[in-house]
Design a protein that fits this description.
Layout lengths: L1 H16 L2 H5 L21 E8 L2 H12 L2 E7 L2 E8 L2 E8 L9 E7 L3 H10 L3 E9 L2 E7 L5 E7 L15 E8 L2 H12 L2 E6 L4 E6 L3 E7 L8 E8 L2 H10 L3 E4 L10 E5 L5 E6 L3
Parallel strand pairs: 1-4, 5-8, 9-12, 13-16
Antiparallel strand pairs: 1-5, 2-3, 3-4, 6-7, 7-8, 9-13, 10-11, 11-12, 14-15, 15-16
Amino acid sequence: MRRMQAWKLAGMAAAALALAGLVAACSTAGGGADKAAASSGTDAQFVWHDLLTRDPAAARKFYGELLGWEFEKIEAFGQAYYLAKQGDRYIGGIVGMAPGGNGGPQWLTYLTVPDVDAALVQLEAAGGRRVIQPTDVAVGRVAVATDPQGAPVGLARVNGKIDELAAASSDGAFAWTDYFAADPTAAANFYSQLAGFEISQHGSAQVPYLLLKSDQVRAGVLKNPVDGVAPNWLPYVNVRDLSAAVERVSVLGGTVVIPPSPLIRNGTVAVIKDPTGGVVALQTNAG
């Protein structure tokens, strides 16, 4: 049953395959609990993560050895798609970018909305653009867009209720998502209007950290600290031993972009780049 659910969610990625190069043209600096459920204005959540890369084999080797992920190959829209498994649960996917596509590899995160078509109209009115038109898939309806600040995001309406694909508290699972924004307040307000999130402010007035809450807290929004990097959604993955994982990154051919620091969440977070260029955060598993 879980494999079928995951395969259906993979249709979200499959909807993007034909135009993956366009999505990848959006810059990224790269996790809400990852529990897929029926979409509504009050339970918006991030239901799936896909890595778009020019070298799926290298990406699979890296994440497999670093995080213990296993992979299953399926065919989606005539192209190879690799379901990532953490234990017996499916947590995301890896897919090759279109040959000749511009831009670099990136992780793409899907957000549930009540109505994909209406969300796209709202997004365009706010200054965003649609990248991939709404597509019906077995699990519902999906599309890919860039928001008003230019960050790529998948939109999904999920029909019915789908069992949890990955326990957010377990090692190797996606467990949080942060939005690195040019304008944090504008970004938080946009997603509040788009998906029904409530906003609460944490941090200092000088360095605000905004939380997006639906039925539970799902994501954070903060000022992008890296000059020259476009706004983006950055997914976080749990690891049991952050120091050991960070040491392994370089051994496996990746790069530590931001090492653990007492100034950043008390040293419990690091940002890394895989050998193919995809960026993701690692965080100490708090259970």
